[in-house]
Amino acid sequence: MNINATLIGQAIWFGLFIWITMKYVWPPLQKAMADRQVLIADGLAAAERGKHEQELAAKRAADALREAKEKSADLVAQAEKRAQQIVEEAKGTAKVEADKVVAGAKAEIDQEVERAKQVLRERVAELAVAGAEKILRKEINASAHAEMLVALKQDL
Predict the structure, then answer these.
(1) DSSP letter at 103?
(2) What are the backbone angles phi and psi of residue 139, rounded to the nearest 5°?
(3) Would you call 47 helix, strand, or coil by DSSP?
(4) Alpha-carbon span 21 to 28, nearest angstrom
(5) Residue 142 burial by CB count (10 A; 0-12/13-18/19+): exposed, middle or buried?
(6) Is the pLDDT of residue 141 over 70?
(7) Which of 35-39, 89-93, 95-99, 103-107 has the highest mean pLDDT?
(8) CB–CB of 145/139 below 8 Å?
(9) What span, in angstroms and rounded, lies between the C-alpha atoms of 105 and 98?
(10) φ, ψ for residue 106, nearest 5 deg
(11) pLDDT tens digits for 54-100?
(12) Are the C-beta atoms of 125 and 153 separated by less than 8 Å?
């Protein structure tokens, strides 16, 4: 066996193997690697876009939150102002109603005082008539005493 012939045969087979690999195996592997590189590059670009969009969304969310806080503060201020107005209106209404009730009560009290005075006058007149009657029973001159009782009744 000749070492040169084996070495030349192995070199031929190795060359043939390299040629077949370069012709049929290597192009699909290169295409797969190129596709993989494109896919990785697209993924990295998408990640960058996503990161950028996330930052923009965070800014928009912060702006929306700030705006919502401002609106809620405005609404609370308006509600407090309206509540104060309602309280003031209620106080005014209550004051008017209280004045009406007080005026009505004063009028009723005045009427009751007048009624009591009238009843008292009538009672005093009755007592005066009763006293006069007792005086008249003792004295004979009823006409003189009757005039005096009428004058007394009118004075009361």
Answers:
(1) H
(2) -110, 155
(3) helix
(4) 10
(5) middle
(6) no
(7) 35-39
(8) yes
(9) 10
(10) -65, -45
(11) 999 999 999 999 999 999 999 999 999 999 999 999 999 999 999 99
(12) yes
Alpha-carbon distance values, 16 to 11, 20, 23 (Å): 8, 6, 10
Please state whether the predicted TM-score (pTM) of the whole model is above 0.70. no
Rounded distance between C-alpha atoms, residue 30 and residue 8, angstroms: 30
Supply the Cα-derived Rg of the chain in whole angstroms: 61
Spatial distance between the Cα atoms of 77 and 91, rounded to a whole number of angstroms: 21
Record the tokens describing residue 56, joined without a space: 């923009």
Provide the angle, in degrees to the nearest 10, between the axes of the packed helices 142-155 and 26-138.
Answer: 160
- The pLDDT score that the predictor gives to residue 120 is 85
Cβ atoms within 10 Å of 151's Cβ, excluding its own:
9
Cα–Cα distance for residue pair 53/56, rounded to 1 Å: 5
- With contact defined as beta carbons under 8 Å apart, do 134 and 106 qualify? no
- What DSSP letter does each residue of 62-79 carry, written as one string? HHHHHHHHHHHHHHHHHH
